[in-house]
Amino acid sequence: MAISYPLNTTETISFEELIEFVTATLDPDDVETLAACTEKLQMLSNNASFITDIIHDELSDTGLFQANNTHSAQSLMLFKHANYYMRLNIWPPSSEREDIRQWQDQLYFYLRAHDHNFDFLTVGYYGSGYGTELWEYDPDSVIGYAGESVDLTFLEKTRLPKGKAMLYRASRDIHSQFPPEDYSVSINILPTTLNIVRREQFYFDLENRKIVGTAANNGTGRYLMFNLAAKFGNAKTVNLLEDLAHKHEIPYVRLKAFDALSVLTNERTAIWNEAMLDGHQIVSGHARLFLDGTLYNGLRKRQS
Questions:
Q1: How confident is the model at residue 301 (pLDDT cuts 50, 70, 90)?
Q2: Strands 153-159 and 131-136, bridge-based pairing
Q3: What angle do CA 70, 225, 232 make, to 5 degrees?
Q4: Nearest in space to 190 (alpha carbons), one of 45, 114, 78
Q5: Is the predicted pLDDT of residue 238 greater than 90, yes or no?
Q6: Where are the domains of the chain?
Q7: Is the pLDDT of residue 5 over 90?
Q8: Residue 185 — pLDDT band, cuts 50, 70, 90?
Q9: Superfamily name and number for 3-215
Q10: Going along 137-183, which residue ranges are E strands?
């Protein structure tokens, strides 16, 4: 399950000292090395001047302000390394105005259950912290399509107050966040790993225990190429797609290649029968659903 770490230290650390420790310790593909950074991250949460120092550094050169930040308006990029990056997230309480509250729910993913296709470590820095309802599932047990039933296990309902740290496991822990009672801030350490393009990230319907959609992430943009290949491809495109469908290491890439082939060649039954022979259920499972009519060209059929 997602691991919670209560604050058990009064020591503080500078941001530079934390960066030095994480850089020397973290292996982005080893979650245990991420867990080893917990106490140091909590020490940073004890540093009352940290956020003010960050503000002063950023405002001192507005020309380069957040030049490496590709995240939403809720996030501030703190540091970027080849193996990881750190960001600061803000979590405001719900507005009394319904229109603003709806905007907040979208921006901050409030009440929208989702997993992450990467491990990450977070700590509360300020405020009572956002609330979170935690569930878990076995990623190897799902095919990964909207409407698929998933065996979910409830873990707990908790908050992320100042000093508390939590470690979320990639493609296993699901959380549905709800607004804090007061303005809150958290700090994250996020490993940079190829797993983000090997796994999908999903939204879930917790009440009905189903996948309801796939979330966009740093890896999903590449799928546009398969849509273009299906639309504008030729004989050479077919050869390239066949090679990817049979040889690429990532199941979702093989799946998208088969899907593009089925459209480009207009030989859907033959292509999906071929995909049924793939050794991973993400590919073979989708192929079975395409063949029985549950799915069509990568999109779930509309229910009448």
A1: very low
A2: antiparallel
A3: 145
A4: 78
A5: yes
A6: 3-215, 220-300
A7: yes
A8: very high
A9: Jelly Rolls (2.60.120.10)
A10: 153-159, 165-168, 173-178
